[in-house]
Amino acid sequence: MSSRRSFTGAMVLGLCRLGASAEAAALAQPGASQDGIKPKASPQLLSHYDYPPFATTPKQGLTLDWLQWVNERLPADWEPLQMQMLPRKRLDLAMSQADWMGVVPWVSPQFFSDAAMQRYVWSAPVMEDGDVVLSRRSQPVHYQNPESLYGLTLGGVAGHVYAEIDALVAAGLLQREDAPNTGSNLQKLLRGRVDVVFLPRSGLPWWRRQIEAFDQLVFIAEQPRNSFQRRMLLAPRLPKPWREFLLQAALDMPSDPGWQLALSRYGLQTLALKKHSEAHTPTWG
């Protein structure tokens, strides 16, 4: 009887040790989270930026380059990220769903009513940017503030909100005439159909290459409309392994040769941050 009990106890102890070893091995596998749960599906990568440098053609642009860069770094047993381009209203609708688990690249907390960075998880800043104010060299606009545009016609892009400007338009202090995209908006400026347009600084190098004699035709005001840092927005429900991976990827971007090469194709080396502050992660999860 005593020997049978000893044999049974030894067997239970051996199984416990075997289970502990298996758990430790599972946690050591690439892609395993601290609780041993591997992500089963990749999050959605959603973007509403359909203009340069983020999208230069339907199959090219900084966002697709970043997607490729991230997917090449994934553990072998993780599903690669897939991107979907959609308008801002549809993006807002997708993000409002209780079960949304996704990533939105190149955005700023102020664009999503999250100045305190508590509503979403935010990466470290990955780019310095802002809207520059463009006019024609033959009729330069020396922008200082929105009041500098009184009596002028602003060329806007359909669907874009310019909060401080739209209030002046509503008051009849200036006019706004929209184009379907950034390229059409710039052409309207060059043809004299509008007096001034806003353009993300990150898009300037690309448009300089596309429009012949750009700097001879276009005047860039010394004072920008605004300045901000672009980050990666992560859904609060994003599984912990994905969240940690993407936050670390953002921190690694400044020192990664492959990513620096991608930036050079768009002339963005000067806007990319050379070193990052820590990512801001709220206290969930």
Which descriptors would you attach to this protein?
285 residues, alpha/beta, D-Maltodextrin-Binding Protein, domain 2, 2 domains, six-stranded mixed sheet, 9 helices, 11 strands, disordered N terminus, disordered C terminus
Largest sheet: 6 strands, mixed
Question: In terms of structural class, how would the helical and strand content be classed?
Answer: alpha/beta
Q: Report the span from N to C terminus.
A: 50 Å
- Count the strands? 11
CATH topology of the largest domain: D-Maltodextrin-Binding Protein, domain 2
| Broad shape | globular
Give the overall pLDDT as a whole number: 86
Query: What is the annotated CATH architecture of the largest domain?
Result: 3-Layer(aba) Sandwich
The topology string of helices and strands comes to HEHEHEEEEEHEHEHHEEHH
Poorly predicted ranges (pLDDT <50, ≥5 residues)?
A: 1-37, 276-285
Strand residues, percent: 15-25%
Taking all Cα atoms into account, the compactness measure Rg is: 25 Å
In CATH terms, the superfamily of the largest domain is Periplasmic binding protein-like II
CATH class category label of the largest domain: Alpha Beta
Counting DSSP H or I runs of 4 or more residues, the number of helices is: 9
Number of domains: 2
Portion of residues within helices: 25-40%
